[in-house]
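Quick one, tokens below. Sequence please?
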């Protein structure tokens, strides 16, 4: 173990060896590359655990996590005024452009929501993960699935 007792972050290659898929276009463990002052400044860090290969008819578990502060709109700020609501409202997963999972999220959802669900592998294709929220927040990531 490295100095300080912390384990190093996994690289995309290490995740691939374990059958996990980091979102494309992102850095280590799905950390979005932020560029202050640009639209990328509003990207959230995502982590998607999805198999890269499966057998036809096989059930697979998909796990996702997105880093988002999730302000409910009910808390008071340091000045005593209510903080503006800022939550992720909808999460949708498409498998070859067909919706296979969808969730409506409400202010009671935790910050950095973790969602897990299962799907059945029918054909090779792309899994598209989409998060939509308040204040125009929208983020989409994808993972490729090969069915043998």
């Amino acid at each position: 173990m490295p100095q300080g007792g912390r384990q190093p972050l996994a690289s995309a290659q290490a995740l691939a060896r374990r059958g996990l898929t980091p979102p494309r276009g992102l850095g280590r463990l799905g950390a979005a590359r932020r560029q202050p002052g640009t639209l990328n400044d509003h990207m959230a860090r995502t982590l998607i655990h999805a198999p890269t290969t499966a057998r036809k008819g096989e059930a697979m578990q998909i796990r996702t996590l997105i880093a988002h502060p999730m302000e409910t709109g009910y808390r008071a700020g340091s000045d005593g005024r209510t903080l503006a609501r800022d939550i992720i409202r909808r999460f949708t997963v498409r498998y070859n452009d067909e919706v296979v999972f969808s969730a409506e999220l409400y202010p009671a959802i935790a910050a950095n929501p973790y969602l897990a669900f299962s799907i059945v592998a029918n054909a090779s294709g792309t899994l598209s993960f989409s998060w939509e929220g308040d204040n125009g927040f929208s983020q989409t990531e994808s993972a490729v699935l090969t069915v043998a």
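The first strand starts at residue 46 and ends at 49. Residues 12-147 form a domain with the Immunoglobulin-like fold (CATH 2.60.40.10).
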